[in-house]
Write a structure and sequence with these properties.
The protein has 194 residues and is of the alpha/beta class. The chain contains seven helices and eight strands; from the N terminus they run βαβαβαβαββαβαβα. 36% of the residues are buried.
């Protein structure tokens, strides 16, 4: 089946304007313009983010869609893959955000626009727990790209979280996957794009 729809989910405090999101969008628009692209701005509430995503992909063909997620977006991508039973690609994914984001409760700024402020509320931690798919067997093929040099998340946790996935583990690197460009051919291959 040829890919027709691709969803990109950004990370915590990030946006569809992130470097990876923009680069993947340009790559798809330039080489695979037949693929419908959607990268929504996710609200801080995981429950609201999940509702927005589910509503946005409600009419997408499950057998020809895929999801890509970075960091917290990777956590959401695993949830989407269970919901839609579609291929998923996780980029330095958050594996236990309920634990890791507890210390960020309060007012925060967005990475791409420091003027933009939002509140990360205590109830969001429980909302993250309800979306956790760690105990589930993957519903479809998974690709995970992990940088051992990730300064935010533990690469070993990421690797252990996705035992069934095709794993690309890079020596060094960083949380932003600054060398993301290098992985575009592997992403195309995984998605069955020529």
């Amino acid at each position: 089946m040829t890919l027709t729809h691709l969803l990109y989910l950004h990370g915590f405090r990030s946006s569809p304007r992130s470097a990876k999101s923009r680069r993947l969008y340009e790559h798809m628009a330039g080489r695979h313009s037949q693929v419908r692209w959607w990268s929504p701005q996710l609200p801080p509430s995981p429950r609201e983010a999940a509702a927005l995503i589910a509503d946005g992909i409600a009419n997408w063909p499950r057998e020809t869609m895929a999801v890509v997620g970075s960091s917290l977006g990777g956590f959401y991508a695993s949830w989407v893959a269970q919901l839609a039973r579609c291929k998923s690609i996780m980029l330095n994914p958050a594996v236990n955000p309920a634990r890791d984001l507890e210390k960020y409760i309060g007012e925060l700024t967005a990475w791409h626009d420091p003027e933009e402020r939002f509140f990360f509320r205590p109830e969001y931690v429980d909302e993250l727990r309800t979306l956790d798919t760690r105990s589930m067997t993957p519903a479809a093929p998974e690709l995970v790209i992990i940088a051992q040099g990730d300064e935010v998340l533990n690469w070993r946790e990421m690797s252990q979280r996705y035992p069934h996935a095709l794993q690309i583990v890079q020596e060094g690197g960083d949380h932003a996957l600054s060398n993301f460009e290098e992985y575009l051919p592997r992403i195309d291959e995984f998605l069955g794009l020529k």
